[in-house]
Write a structure and sequence with these properties.
It is a single chain. The chain is an alpha+beta fold and 168 residues long. It has 2 domains: 111 residues, Uridine Diphospho-n-acetylenolpyruvylglucosamine Reductase, domain 3, CATH 3.30.465.10; 47 residues. The protein is built from 5 helices and 10 strands. It starts with a strand and ends with a strand.
Length: 168
């Protein structure tokens, strides 16, 4: 299935359909040397789903992925289309950012993007108690930090990544 994506590289702005998978959007953005600012762990999600579930990215300084969304076009239950943004139909816009689909179907998304970047990642597994005792330090040790808890082993996998211009 082909998805609509309109890119304005100069303004670092895109318009895409709500059904596009993040991996497909990221691939199209890369052809323009652009990227989503915030990184989710799973790129198989649709953009509309990411927005309506308030999917978070990685990194203590990054908010939900919907934080970069400027406006939306929704299909309401009665079959009408409505435009909402931070300035127009604000209540509907805010409700959609974590509405879990209750406000309508996300048809299109206007969002900010930024210049493409690379990540240098490191991973380590630590005891749960060590993570708990150093959590504030751990979440600030890199721009992007993900934690996977394995309760059966009483361990946590820490993945830390920083942006870099280096190729390898």
């Amino acid at each position: 299935m082909t998805h609509f994506v309109q890119v304005d590289p100069e303004k670092q702005f895109i318009v895409c359909d709500g059904g596009i998978k993040l991996e497909d959007l990221e691939r199209q953005l890369a052809t323009h040397h652009l990227a989503l600012r915030n990184l989710g762990s799973i790129s198989m999600q649709a953009m509309g789903g990411v927005i309506t579930t308030a999917t978070h990215g990685t990194g203590i300084e990054f908010k939900i992925l919907g934080d970069d969304v400027l406006s939306l076009c929704l299909l309401l239950a009665d079959g009408t289309f409505v435009y909402c943004s931070r300035y127009e139909n604000q209540d509907l816009f805010k409700a959609t950012l974590f509405g879990r689909g209750s406000t309508g179907l996300v048809v299109s998304v206007d969002s900010r993007v930024e210049p493409a970047f690379r990540l240098r990642e490191s991973q380590k597994t630590c005891p749960f108690d060590e993570i708990l005792g150093n959590l504030d330090h751990i979440v600030h040790q890199a721009q992007h930090v993900r934690l996977w808890w394995y309760p059966q082993n009483k361990t946590v996998r820490v993945c830390s990544a920083d942006r870099t211009v280096k190729v390898k």
